[in-house]
Specification:
By secondary structure, the chain is α/β, with parallel strands linked by helices. The protein is 44% helix and 11% strand. The chain is built from 18 helices and 14 strands.
Length: 471
């Protein structure tokens, strides 16, 4: 089983290379907290009280659901282990259903946002498959005109060997067709339960589809009222809604997750369930301090009831790739990774999920790799202290020839897009910035990357779905 990796730039290389980054193969060691233990207990009690007579059953359902399971890739190398202490990145919105799947795209060629086409969808899926930091696809990343939700899921399956988390499926018929596709991809119904290639996250509109997935053993994340949305105040100056008190938001959202879990466990006892922690679903603006605090607190609440967390991390309000988008995404996604959320979603989204940008997906991948290296913490043991090497070389000596240095020299986080060259070298190179590097890398990956092909049986199943999708 492999973990998501990041790339770095080799000295002397003409173009950035994509290779494994050992930092992301370690467990996340941080567990950032914004709630005390007493706070967590109080929110839990308040949420159960909000559910009334159903509270005890909801609490029992959450605690009976698996605390760890695998989201299967089409190939085992892309399996995603949840509940094991790893942090993963999803391209597209992993948590907010239709509200998080944009219908417009900001293409690599620039210009205004344009209606997304099938070619844009296929390109987004291929780029996500090529980027090693991206562990799974969600949404799908964008919604192409004329493509049904089920057909969009099928195109994702065909275009990546990574796990696909559906966010648009609503009806029983759609979900049954998708569950059948998952069985074909896995090879059998039993294997689909062991290494599910599809999962589903959403709100109350996805209830029927979620129950079908759960009965098939496919992982589900579901938020049902009263926690599906907070009661936001009217928009403040600048157009951004002011959320209610975050304590109230947490209670309502946590209650919604517990109620969703209870519905799933009643239909399919022991079904894998995901704690959906997205500011948007909770009625909180997608970026800013409240969103960051919400993500940190939601991760603590999920840990309290023992559920893996799928969080909304990259939810910039910027309409263009660049400083604002990266800054907003960095702060909120740092909260998700530092808090130990299993999946951080939203990679590549712009304008509060109004558009998808391949360029931004590349930049979000770099931001995520930075944050994941922080989440990995500092390992302090005999090997990392390297006392023997220090004694041998002495204070102020040169460690480059030491075996310890050679063993660990590739573990240092190195950027692929951020520039660290001296001024003269940067000017001589044409003053290329991170944005230009992101476009160049995306273009190269799209030109060179080859997706692992579907086997004939799976290919036929995908073609049937895309040719005659369920309405």
């Amino acid at each position: 089983m492999s973990e998501p990796t990041t790339g770095a730039t080799d000295p002397g290389a003409e173009a950035p290379v994509v290779r494994a980054h050992p930092i992301l193969t370690t467990h996340a060691r941080l567990a950032a907290r914004v709630l005390s233990d007493d706070d967590v207990v109080r929110v839990q009690a308040a949420a159960l009280g909000l559910l009334g007579a159903d509270g005890a059953a909801a609490d029992a359902a959450a605690r009976s659901a698996p605390s760890a399971f695998v989201l299967g890739g089409r190939v085992p190398e892309h399996d995603v282990a949840l509940g094991a202490g790893h942090v993963w990145l999803a391209a597209g919105a992993a948590t907010a259903g239709a509200a998080g799947v944009p219908e417009r795209v900001r293409r690599l060629t620039g210009g205004d946002h344009a209606p997304a086409t099938v070619a844009d969808l296929d390109e987004a899926v291929k780029l996500a498959d090529a980027l090693p930091e991206v562990a799974l696809l969600a949404g799908p990343p964008l919604r192409a005109a004329g493509v049904s939700p089920l057909a969009a899921v099928a195109r994702c399956v065909a275009g990546t060997s990574k796990h696909v988390m559906a966010g648009l499926l609503r009806s029983t018929a759609e979900a049954e067709a998708a569950a059948g596709l998952a069985t074909t991809l896995a090879g059998s119904a039993d294997e689909a339960r062991r290494r599910p290639p599809l999962s589903l996250c959403g709100d109350g509109a996805a209830l029927d589809a979620a129950l079908v997935f759960a009965r098939a053993g496919l992982p589900v994340g579901l938020v049902l009222a009263p926690g599906a949305a907070g009661e936001a105040a009217p928009p403040a100056e600048g157009g951004e809604a002011v959320p209610p008190d975050l304590g109230a938001v947490l209670v309502r959202h946590h209650a919604g997750v517990l109620r969703g879990c209870a519905a799933v466990q009643a239909a399919a006892p022991g079904a894998p369930f995901l704690y959906v922690a997205d500011p948007v679903l909770a009625g909180v603006p997608p970026s800013g301090p409240p969103a960051t605090l919400f993500q940190l607190a939601a991760a603590q609440l999920a840990a309290h009831v023992g559920l893996p967390v799928v969080a909304g991390g990259f939810r910039t309000t910027s309409h263009e790739p660049g400083w604002q988008a990266c800054q907003q995404g960095a702060f909120v996604s740092l909260a998700t990774t530092a808090a130990g959320a299993d999946v951080t979603g939203g990679g590549g989204l712009l304008g509060a999920a109004a558009a998808f940008s391949p360029q931004q997906l590349v930049m979000d991948s770099e931001v995520f790799s930075w944050n994941a290296s922080i989440a990995a913490g500092i390992v302090v043991d005999d090997e990392t202290i390297a006392l023997d090497a220090i004694k041998q070389v002495g204070i102020g000596g040169n460690y480059l020839a030491q075996r310890h240095t050679r063993r660990h020299m590739k573990e240092v986080w190195r950027p692929r897009l951020l520039d660290r060259t001296m001024w003269d070298a940067w000017v001589a190179s044409g003053r290329e910035g991170a944005g230009e590097k992101a476009i160049a890398l995306a273009e190269r990956l799209l030109a060179e990357h080859a997706v692992v092909p579907l086997d004939p049986r799976a290919r036929a199943a995908v073609e049937r779905v895309t040719a005659d999708p369920v309405p």
